[in-house]
Design a protein that fits this description.
Length: about 375
């Protein structure tokens, strides 16, 4: 167990250190409050010293923003290639996370945040962290993410293809982009399911919130098995399946990628970028060495019923960023003894794809999202 130590009113204090992204234990912790100047806080944080906030909650948020502005003042170095731009962007993001992650708050042993004007964060923390196990110190930045996730979980995200809302949990990939969900909602179902919808089965690998499993069930597939490696995703998918009254039609299981048996349709929307996630929260975005993509391709034939298909949902953002070539993808498909029956393309519509201030704008603007219909090669 990692513990942070600090001195307050001349008395030694300690609390358990908690970081979802496994940020290292701060070397040193000092107390900060409403009198702390942003320049001093920023300097401390850059030097690796954590600041345990004891002042007003909203002032802490303002301080965090002021520290963020100081980080952003340093212009990025000109990069020569999209790949270099991507890696520089990730380095800058992790530097930002490291520095801003040094502003800490204490959560009491029932997750009460005992700061002036602090919101009640107990339910949000319970959802994200599970039952409390004593007083913990967390970064304010992480806590703000936990609070935001709680709001999303309460309100849900509108999924037009389902005509209802999906409720993401903390750390679970949220279907904020609807273009890929629409692809799954409209692609022609494999003939084997159309001949006998009543006995049709599908697998949804890496189900996240369960959104694609729900779309398949709503399209008439009788029985869908949804898997995920993330315990949070499994809990979240089960809850959404229950909300949508699809409990008898969708079974959620994990942590293996493929469930037992074979299906008419195997859908997989792996993380789109081959890179290492910095923590469990990024597991839906980055697929180290394309391992999930490769495992899906390698196992597909052995999990398809005769006449069945695999649907790979993938954007070509990795190609525009120079992280993977189209040929590498086609080679992986061929190595798995699969053939491409069809590819259905769409363009992202989410606001970020139009945001010219995004450092990856050029690649995002060129991005195409595709549903690859795959079948065993003859
Ligand atoms: C891009 S998200 C897709 C989530 C959901 N299917 C959707 O379309 O909104 C990828 C999902 O794959 C899961 N995942 C990553 N690696 C996995 C693995 N090896 N086995 C099973 N699931 C995995 C992640 O936890 C995440 O939920």
């Amino acid at each position: 167990m990692s513990t942070i130590h600090w001195t307050e009113n001349d008395a030694p204090q300690s609390a358990r250190w908690h970081s979802e992204n496994a940020a290292p234990l701060p070397q040193r912790t000092v107390v900060a409050d409403d009198r702390t100047k942003a320049n001093d806080a920023y300097r401390h944080a850059c030097e690796g010293t954590a600041l345990l906030w004891r002042g007003d909650f909203h002032n802490a948020r303002h301080l965090l923003q002021a520290m963020g502005r100081r980080i952003d003042r340093k212009p990025p170095r000109p990069s020569t290639s999209p790949r270099e731009r991507f890696h520089q962007h990730r380095r800058r993001s992790s530097h930002r996370a490291r520095v801003l992650g040094k502003l800490l708050v204490l959560l009491d042993d029932d997750y009460t945040l005992a700061l002036r004007r602090a919101p009640d964060v107990r339910q949000a923390c319970l959802e994200a962290y599970g039952p409390p196990q004593g007083r913990i110190a967390v970064s304010l930045r992480e806590l703000l993410g936990v609070i935001g996730a709680h709001q999303w979980r309460l309100k849900g995200i509108d999924v037009p293809a389902l005509g209802t809302r999906i409720h993401p949990h903390y750390g679970v990939f949220a279907p904020v982009r609807d273009e890929y969900v629409d692809l799954v909602a409209h692609a022609p179902l494999p003939p084997s399911t159309r001949h006998s919808l009543a006995t049709s089965t599908a697998f949804d690998l890496g189900t996240g919130t369960g959104v694609l499993a729900a779309v398949l069930a709503r399209r008439g597939i009788q029985y869908v098995v949804a898997t995920d490696i993330s315990p949070r995703a499994l809990t979240c998918a089960k809850e959404n399946v229950h909300r949508l009254a699809l409990t008898g039609r969708i079974e959620v299981s994990g942590p293996d990628l493929f469930p037992q048996g074979r299906a008419d349709l195997v859908v997989c929307n792996p993380p789109w970028l081959p890179a290492r996630p910095t923590g469990p929260v990024e597991q839906g975005v980055y697929d180290p060495d394309s391992s999930m993509l490769r495992s899906f391709l390698a196992g597909l034939s052995d999990h398809l019923r005769p006449g069945g298909e695999g649907w790979l949902i993938l954007s070509d953002l990795a190609e525009h960023l120079g992280l993977r070539t189209r040929q590498q993808l086609l080679d992986a498909v061929q190595a798995a003894q699969l053939r491409v029956m069809d590819k259905i393309d769409t363009k992202p519509r989410h606001p970020r794809s139009k945001d010219a201030t995004d450092p990856l704008h050029t690649a995002r603007n060129a991005e195409t999202t595709s549903l690859w219909r795959l079948a065993p090669a003859p």
